[in-house]
Design goal:
The protein has 16 helices and 19 strands. The chain has 400 residues and is an alpha/beta fold.
Length: 400
């Protein structure tokens, strides 16, 4: 869909106040892809992998995993199912395994999805409900940076809001699992929030990730978790162009090297936290008739929460439908909870983190937050409930 010239690349408040009448008439609202919390979902993967071989929890896993004595789980940030199926011919190693698609969680953002992957819990249960989420009346936590924004000021939140207060559940069901992650992530609040209880082994270049995984498997570790973020980084900076293709080919080689590094009886399992949509400069400022009722914004560009002034929800809902109903699903907090987007009914303190209204884009656009201007520079985006963002791969090999 062509977006008219009122779409902005910055914070121009006149942006996207209206779409042309032709654009409005030409768009048919699709159906959101809701997470499969009771079926094949990333939130059920770790519990299944850590369960006994005879457990019914494992029934949906690939056959390659059923007979493994050891398991390596590699999370490839940003590796969407639709993106790799469109590029199957350039990914011979990835497609040599037993492959199927599974769902991510809502929202399809790294902070929420990785926490669901490692804890085995839905967003409603673990409470990390977005990239930026309200944790006090006028404070928003950037979960990845673990910084608090309040009245335009940002501060390190690790001592103010310890990770265990925001997300108290241990990773990997409380089992001591070695995790191979970027060394610079070791002390972050988000690492403590979604990998709490595991012991970290840092890598600075991808070859070290391969070496460390192979070393742990040779030591007899029954379960190893590894994380690689290159695909997501490239998609954010460049979109889904030749840079993205080159990174996917690099990942394909990385997977081949990990397969070479593990011994017989070990299964390599690959999944991801979300897919990608190319948005580019199609970032939309919210019009005055909406912003006049907004106390603060949270979430991310493709799943934007509006925290509204008391009593303004009906007026804001009508304004949002008028402005963006042909670009996004407009949903209230109650609707999102009742329809199971978050995987259950959150505890009251988690409900308080949610906005009153959500703008969830199904067209390739994002909704700007003036308090988070850096986000507007991203080319590839995610967070919403389109198939391109929701479906992720589950690929497995059993080393003979």
């Amino acid at each position: 869909m062509a977006i008219n010239e009122q779409v902005t690349k910055g914070l121009d408040t006149s942006a996207a106040r209206e779409l042309s009448s032709q654009d409005r008439k030409s768009t048919v609202q699709p159906v959101p892809v809701l997470p499969s919390y009771e079926g094949s979902c990333i939130s059920r993967l770790v519990p299944a992998l850590l369960s006994e071989k005879s457990s019914s929890l494992r029934s949906w896993l690939p056959e390659a995993v059923q007979h493994a004595r050891q398991v390596v789980l590699l999370a490839l940030d940003g590796l969407g199912w639709e993106q790799i199926t469109e590029r199957a011919t350039m990914l011979p190693t990835l497609w040599s395994g037993s492959a199927q698609r599974i769902s991510s969680v809502a929202p399809t953002t790294t902070a929420t999805a990785l926490t669901s992957l490692t804890t085995g819990l839905t967003p409603a249960q673990h409470g990390v409900v977005g990239y930026r989420m309200r944790i006090a009346e006028r404070e928003v936590l950037n979960v990845l940076r673990w910084q608090v924004s309040s009245d335009g000021r940002r501060s390190d939140a690790r001592s103010i809001y310890p990770a265990s207060v925001i997300q108290s559940y241990p990773a990997f069901l409380g089992e001591s699992v070695p995790t191979v992650v970027r060394a610079e992530f070791a002390t972050t609040g988000f690492t403590r929030a979604h990998l709490g209880g595991s012991y970290l082994i840092g890598w600075r270049v991808a070859s070290s990730l391969v070496v460390e995984v192979g070393r742990l498997v040779s030591k007899g570790e029954p379960f190893v978790y590894a994380y690689y973020d290159g695909v997501d980084k490239v998609a954010h900076e460049w979109g889904l162009d030749e840079h993205y293709d080159a990174e996917l080919q690099t990942v394909d080689h990385l997977v081949a090297e990990i397969l070479d590094s593990i011994g017989p009886g070990c299964a390599l399992v690959i999944t991801a936290d979300h897919g990608q949509v190319q948005v580019g400069g199609q970032s939309l400022a919210l019009p005055t008739e909406i912003m006049d009722n907004v106390e603060l914004l949270s979430g991310e560009g493709r799943f934007r929460w509006l925290h509204l002034r008391p009593g303004s929800q009906e007026e804001s809902l009508a304004a949002a439908e008028e402005a963006f109903g042909k670009l996004a699903w407009i949903a209230t907090r109650d609707q999102i909870i009742e329809e199971g987007w978050l995987g259950g009914v959150p505890q009251p303190e988690v409900i308080d983190r949610l906005g009153d209204l959500a703008l969830v884009a199904f067209e390739p656009v994002a909704f700007l937050d003036p308090a988070d201007t850096g986000e507007s520079a991203l080319v590839g985006r995610h967070g919403s409930l389109t198939g391109a963002e929701m479906w992720v791969p589950l690929v497995a090999w059993l080393k003979e």
